[in-house]
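A protein record pairs a chain with a discrete description of its three-dimensional fold. The shape at a given residue is found from the number at the same position. Here is what such a record looks like in full:
>
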Amino acid sequence: MKRIRGFLRWNSFVQDPEFTQTTVELARAFRENNIEDTDISIITVLIAYPKWYPDSDFWTYVKRKVQNQMREDKKTFFVFDSSTEGFSTIYGEPYFDVLYKMAKDYKIDPRRIFFTSSNMKDHDNIMRYNMEHKIETSINVFTYLNFEQMIFGTAGQTEVDLNQNEDFDTIVERRIQTAVKRTKHKYHHPQFSKVGLSLSRVNRPHRTFSAMEIFNSEHFKDMYVSHGSLKKMNLDYYLTEMPFPNSGVTYQQLKNFKKHLPLIVDTEDFKTNHATALHSDLNDQTLFQIVNETFVNDWQGTSLFYSEKTFRSVYHMQPFVIWGQPGINKRMVDYGYKLYDDWFDLSFDDIKNPVKRWRALWKEVRKQIDHIRSMDNVKEQKRWKFKNETVLKHNFRTLLEGKYTRETFKNGDRVRSYIYDVKEDSKGYQVFLSRTHPNFLSKLFFQEVPEIYEGVITVKSVARDPGSRAKISVFTEDSTIDPVGACVGMRGSRVQTIVNELHG
């Protein structure tokens, strides 16, 4: 699959991203639907939220040559990438309206338009939309947990030390040992340490509401709570937006809370997107976390969105409850995760009213704080955090597999892989294969590039983030040979063969 670049004139509505996880996920989607992606070309626009707005005719910023290619070439697809957001496409952002209008105005086959999102309800939403508008030829909708992958950025990889020579079990076991060790050294008795963690980055009304209720509680002393400053002119807005209506919160209460802001525990910068920051020290110093998700409104069941905040807690092997949309805690099982119901009673999760749902959640959290404080010693408190390692390890492994298990195979498929180890046990010999090992990439070049096979060109080093990107360093002492050009091949023929084998 080839991604077309440089097709977009500058505008403030959509962007031509240098890299997007959607490209990787989309290639997988093609394969799962038995679509041969070798000759497919895609153009990807990333929504520049919040500057994008529905009335913007962003297609006018696409170069005429690419417009013609979209209309004429049946193997060229358009990807409208909203994978970092989870807005309702029924009651929120009218993305479907925009894409169908684009298809009509510019005579583009809707079947060659993809809409990608992290709203896990968008498959249901497109079917509902098509039925209501009597649409027979549908655009394609593809959803995935984008932030599940983001958490394993540079910081995550460094900390976890994802050695491709190791199997997942080894990595998971090392991670739990690290978490236990750090908690042992950094968590102390609640008299000296905090029990729970509640972080806010962007000041949203529902986060202000929850932070204020924690602040006004006697259990505030047991929590690390972060929240940025509030402007006086915004107080009315916070009172009228979800979930404040009918909450009993008064202007005076909000004004008094404002005087004590900001609440700083991790950063003084509440504007910059710290999506890949890990906050490791804070997680290690506490026993549980309240995850303040992006939305508390599910727009009548048309939105379900998980951000990096949820997966960051999974990464840290720390039990948590999510302050978010109704059902968001229990729905994690739909994506392979186990529930944290050994630590918390999750019955609050089903409550539709956000105010009542928060207060039931906070009541359960206070109950667990009291339970922890009643324990005889700090060792017992730490055991509470890790009392079900099976769940913690399972969820971390699920997160890990979400990052690296990207391929699907059918019976009878011929699969190339790298043999990195052979072990003998009581049952015979075990052969360990890998398609993510860095040496797998170098061996593919060894097979595809005669100059490497013959020793004229030497592979010096390989760096690879499986399913995302890869780099290879090559060298030759023969001044008549271009080592990079030899690896790329005529019109990219050699490197494209390797890209196809690696599925992107």
The chain is about 35% helix and 15% strand. The first helix runs from residue 21 to 32. Confidence is low (pLDDT under 50) at residues 154-158. Residues 2-144 form one domain.
